[in-house]
UniProtKB/TrEMBL annotation:
<dbReference type="GO" id="GO:0048193">
    <property type="term" value="P:Golgi vesicle transport"/>
</dbReference>
<dbReference type="GO" id="GO:0000938">
    <property type="term" value="C:GARP complex"/>
</dbReference>
<keyword id="KW-0333">Golgi apparatus</keyword>
<keyword id="KW-0813">Transport</keyword>
<comment type="function">
    <text>Acts as component of the GARP complex that is involved in retrograde transport from early and late endosomes to the trans-Golgi network (TGN).</text>
</comment>
<keyword id="KW-0445">Lipid transport</keyword>
<dbReference type="GO" id="GO:0015031">
    <property type="term" value="P:protein transport"/>
</dbReference>
<dbReference type="GO" id="GO:1990745">
    <property type="term" value="C:EARP complex"/>
</dbReference>
<dbReference type="GO" id="GO:0005829">
    <property type="term" value="C:cytosol"/>
</dbReference>
<dbReference type="GO" id="GO:0007030">
    <property type="term" value="P:Golgi organization"/>
</dbReference>
<dbReference type="GO" id="GO:0042147">
    <property type="term" value="P:retrograde transport, endosome to Golgi"/>
</dbReference>
<dbReference type="InterPro" id="IPR014812">
    <property type="entry name" value="Vps51"/>
</dbReference>
<dbReference type="GO" id="GO:0032456">
    <property type="term" value="P:endocytic recycling"/>
</dbReference>
<dbReference type="GO" id="GO:0016020">
    <property type="term" value="C:membrane"/>
</dbReference>
<comment type="similarity">
    <text>Belongs to the VPS51 family.</text>
</comment>
<protein>
    <recommendedName>
        <fullName>Vacuolar protein sorting-associated protein 51 homolog</fullName>
    </recommendedName>
</protein>
<dbReference type="GO" id="GO:0007041">
    <property type="term" value="P:lysosomal transport"/>
</dbReference>
Length: 508
């Protein structure tokens, strides 16, 4: 019998070919029967020939598996091989073909299960990659939403389809497969455990990181990616949450219902599938991806801030005439971040955290220490003293909690990024030396930022505090920290607002 005959049996919709193979193998069996009658010392040769034929058929089945063979076709191939074995065993008992076939089938079924997990891993990776590519080509309006939906579907529906295929292996009444049921149960459980470990590694690759690299290296690499890649990291964070909270419990239910009984795994080794460990791994991975997204976005803005403060000669700065354009670029970056988080994260449940008179400050212009009358005096030393005294008083009066744990909400992520950026801004200011005009430019830019940032961030108290910190830092690095008069400051800010309104008219 030619090995190509078995290949033709993969498509069970062709009964003519199946009949041809059966007739061909029957002829081979009769030839073996006649050969051993005529040549009574040929048993050893016939045993080797028969075992070689079975081994060749399983080699062909391995090629099918690599080509993503369906479970129905795979079972069809196994049935053909088993039927051939039973026919041949009737005339050649010395070959112990059923036992030989059982060992070969064990390897084939295990390979099939492993290949299904491998294909699922590739499908999930392709789902994330394809959406990213389509966005780069301008084909999708909300690419992050689509990427997350595709990833969720690939993980959960793909796993459910996998379990359905494995149940068909488990429920098949073929004698050969019945003997492998306990092993199939173990392989499925072990397969899911290994699959989720491999999935975590694959998500790390998509994020631009790797398990062996340091956190600092991952952040540095992340700072070099564009905003779409940064958004993809946020997709990965949400996908990890989905795997932990939805996919793993659902898969656990199916495994417990159909793949929990039996098994030959020793008691000492413990259970093969440990959902608690999977949940812990993806909870941790999700938090790391969320932090990576924040780091990438923050460092992107930090590059902008660094360029702004290292480029000019602040010691020779001219009198401010308008709000600097870096403010617009800063707000544009925050707008892009807001658009990303709105696609993927739910809104928070808490309202705005506004400041009141009881905590030593208000949301009005009086909260700015630069508005104090004392600061407008011509005496430089008294102006500096008043500024520092006001700052120290705020430190004692206010109990501002700047950094809290980042949650998976729009407000929490945006709040954290803005606060980190303002802290970076404060550090850049402290590295420069300002003349009076340079200090006044910082005052103008920071004062203008108060309004837009309070619309973006729900913690107004912290925003006021951090912005005041920037101005205080600039005053400490200024030789003549005399602020702009309030009327001049308001005039420049109103001019900027009018210009922005003219450039971006509100549509009726």
């Amino acid at each position: 019998m030619e090995s190509s005959d078995l290949t033709k049996q993969e498509n069970n919709s062709k009964p003519v070919l199946a009949t041809k193979h059966e007739a061909s193998f029957c002829e081979f069996t009769e030839a073996v029967r006649a050969y051993r009658v005529i040549f009574q010392d040929s048993v050893e040769q016939l045993v080797k020939l028969s075992q070689g034929l079975i081994a060749k058929n399983f080699e062909i089945s391995e090629q099918y598996i690599k080509k993503k063979i369906s479970v129905a076709n795979f079972l069809g191939v196994i049935r053909i091989i088993w039927k051939d074995v039973l026919l041949l065993d009737e005339v050649l008992l010395e070959a112990f073909l059923p036992d030989y076939c059982l060992q070969a089938a064990q390897a084939a079924v295990k390979q099939y299960i492993a290949s299904k997990f491998s294909h699922l891993l590739h499908n999930i990776s392709d789902a994330l990659t394809n959406v990213h590519v389509r966005h780069n080509e301008g084909m999708e309006e909300h690419p992050l939403q689509i990427a997350l939906k595709a990833g969720k579907t690939a993980v959960l529906q793909g796993s459910m389809d996998l379990l359905l295929d494995f149940r068909k292996l488990l429920d098949d009444d073929l004698g050969l497969l019945v003997k492998l049921r306990d092993l199939v149960t173990d392989w499925v459980q072990e397969g899911f455990q290994d699959f989720f470990k491999a999935l975590e590694d694959r998500l790390l690759v998509h994020s631009g990181r790797n398990r062996s690299g340091s956190q600092e290296q991952g952040i540095t690499e992340g700072a070099q990616v564009d905003k779409v890649a940064a958004g993809l990291v946020l997709v990965l964070a949400q996908l990890c949450v989905f795997i932990e909270q939805t996919a793993t419990p659902r898969i656990t239910e199916e495994v417990a219902a159909f793949f929990s009984s039996g098994g030959v795994r020793s008691y000492e080794n413990g259970p093969a599938f440990v959902p608690g460990e999977i949940c812990r791994v993806f909870r941790s991975a999700g938090e790391k991806f969320l932090q990576q997204y924040i780091n990438v976005r923050t460092q992107r803005i930090s590059v902008l801030l660094k360029k702004r403060f290292t480029t000019p000669n602040w010691f020779k700065h001219k009198e401010p005439r308008e709000v600097h354009m870096f403010v617009d670029l800063f707000l544009q970056e925050l707008e892009a971040i807001g658009a990303e988080v709105k696609q993927l994260l739910p809104p928070g449940v808490l309202g705005k955290h506004r400041r009141t008179e009881s905590n030593g400050s208000t949301a009005s212009s009086r909260s700015n220490p630069l508005r104090d009358d004392t600061m407008s005096r011509s005496n430089t030393q008294r102006a500096r003293s008043q500024l520092l005294e006001t700052h120290l008083a705020k430190l004692f009066k206010q109990k501002v909690e700047i950094f809290t744990k980042t949650e998976y909400t729009q407000e929490s992520v945006v709040n954290t990024i803005v606060k980190l950026c303002l802290k970076s801004l404060q550090e850049f200011v402290r590295l420069q030396t300002f003349n009076r005009s340079g200090f006044q430019q910082i005052q103008l830019d920071i004062q203008f930022l108060r309004g837009p940032l309070k619309e973006i961030v729900d913690d107004e108290a912290t925003i006021d505090f951090l912005l005041d910190e920037v101005i205080v830092g600039a005053s400490e690095r200024c030789l003549d920290p005399i602020p702009l008069e309030p009327p001049i400051l308001d005039k420049l800010i109103q001019a900027k607002l009018a210009k922005a309104k003219e450039q971006n008219p509100v549509s009726p």
